[in-house]
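[Structure tokenization] protein backbone as discrete codes

[Encoding] learned vocabulary of local backbone shapes

[Begin record] amino acids and matching fold tokens:

___
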Amino acid sequence: MGERGRGGCCPPMDLMRSEPMQLVQIIIPVESANLSISYLGDVGLIQFKDLNVEKSPFQRTYATQIKRCGEMARKLRFFRDQMSKAGLSPQARSLTQPVHSLDDLEAGEFFHSAMSNAEAHQTEYSSNQGGEESLETPLLSEPEVTTFDSTKQVKLGFITGLVPREKSMAFERILFRATRGNVFLKQAAVDERVIDPVSGEKVEKNVFAVFFSGERAKNKILKICEAFGANRYAFNEDLGKQAQLITETSSRLSELKTTIDAGLVHRGNLLQIIGEQFEEWNFLARKEKSIYHTLNMLSIDVTRKCLVAEGWSPVFASKQIQDALHRATHDSNSQVDAIFQVLQTREMPPTYFRTNKFTTAFQEIVDAYGIAKYQEANPGVFTIVTFPFLFAVMFGDWGHGICLLLATLFFIIREKKLSSQKLGDIMEMTFGGRYVILLMALFSIYTGLIYNEFFSVPFELFARSAYVCRDPLCRDSTTVGLIKEGDTYPFGVDPAWHGTRSELPFLNSLKMKMSILLGVSQMNLGIILSYFNARFFKNNLNTWFQFIPQMIFLNSLFGYLSVLIIIKWCTGSKADLYHVMIYMFLSPTDELGENQLFPGQKTVQLVLLLLALVSVPWMLFPKPFLLKREHNRHHGDSYEPLPGTDESLQSDVNHNSHGHEEFEFSEVFVHQLIHTIEFVLGAVSNTASYLRLWALSLAHSELSSVFYEKVLLLAWGYNNVIILIVGLIVFIFATVGVLLVMETLSAFLHALRLHWVEFQNKFYEGDGYKFYPFSFATLDYEEE
């Protein structure tokens, strides 16, 4: 497994190669299984394999326990909803009397009393709403609806009730037409919404009273009330009983109000107590559910007395896992200890890198492209430096870098507080990459000092400019020109270049050549890492027929170009490098003339061109034929069955020897052909791709200059305070919105592409799978 000698239970982080892994088997007695898995979850360093793939979730051993956990989670969600309605939030997990198991939580008297009280309060609230619906006082304030002549006494009947407000006008018209106007109807709006007994929803209603004479009219009114969904309520015709009913109802209403107020206070107290323990209960329910899900992945022995688990774990975690198993055996009073043993396998282990809060974000950048194959060289080690540096090359401005640094320091200083809060999606990503942005800001300040740009304004930070105006009396040095008088500016670009007519050609040439140098250097680093991969996995074919010809091809062309750039900078030559590289291919035997940078350059170019041409078939042809020869040699050395062996056994052996490792020469050759073409074409396209460093750096500088000159300086020139304030606000918003947000995102994405495509494709396979251990630290506290 490639284990290296290390001391202690927890070795130091090693990002270059993933941790050595081992396939382990654990035999656990049934009586200590739950506690063993719980302690292993606390350790969080073993990834269990599902040994019951053929079984459905309902056929597994612990399906009933998972159902219990689901029911408990449902009850906890009910409590959380009640707390949300009451405006309360759960407190952090801290208990004076912690609940130790799911059985303790289910058997807790407080849990059931809190549930019953909450349901009782809900019932009282509903009944109170029903009582309010049956008590309508506006009609009762007029006991004498009309006055009758004593000589012509007519006995009138009446019907009272509630009708939906949107149907009240139609209800009145239908009553009038059906009885030909022989009714008296009075309606009044109910101030509050009332619960409809049929739908159970709160709706707006009117209370009505219909006075009529005769049974025929009564029957018609009753049918109309049913048709309109009006709720009728009986009311006594005796005035004395009416007054008594009003008194009784008012007294009952007062008692219900007192009961509800007391119940709400009690409910608030209960929910407050629940809020103090809710997070502990929620964590326990999720913890138990994850334990039983893991137990369902284990196979049960035929005696049903022990469980067999298999999984991957880091080599260094063996002692921790064994200690956890011993502790579980002791705490569960089991008579038999769990058995821990390492299995031998050819299966590819998962990839596990030990990271911290600083390196995690950089590792996730690499993992987003693909998970590293087990123990192959990890680009994350170099990404920690190269990624923020390439970003800074495109973003170089030490004023903008300071703004990024201040924003990042806010996240880092408030790290503990923000890590416990729920942030939005964008803020969550920004907070997670705070240390990446920190290095991006620091490198941006560094490259900004090299470019000598502070919001596009140059400063004489390290010394005075080496250039002065050609005429001491001249005022416009941008048109008259400059002459060099002092020593060369010690660090970065001389501030005198800013604003001159030759500024853009000078910076273009500088940044373009610098981009090529950085690109060739990073691509060479990728090819060198492919050598270390080949050496680590003892693959000599990749060393001789991949690493060496790739290094020769890349450096014969673009490595040579990089050397020419450095020689031209050192000698001050005016040679045209475009002409040199183009005619190196078109006319390699022609004289270079004024483009010659060193003696013997023509011969060197011919040798390099020949090496580049030779390296292409070197990559293409030998490797497939050598792989075929190696396969045939291993095939010939395979074991033969003994004489007299059963025919079925012989056929199995032959099948294994022939079919276990299929080798298709055509597929291998086509794959090598594609790989060779990809590298040859990619050497050109990838080098050109690094010119984005020059392009984005130029764009950032020009945008910053436009905002400064056309917004801030233009507003300053009006000598008006209001215009100056408006110009300053526009400059701030343009700088933040465009340069600090959009340009940052653009440079980030381009740096990401350079690492994923131009750098990692030289050595990184990325076809592994990640190590996901069973750990309680990753339990999600949010609702599933």
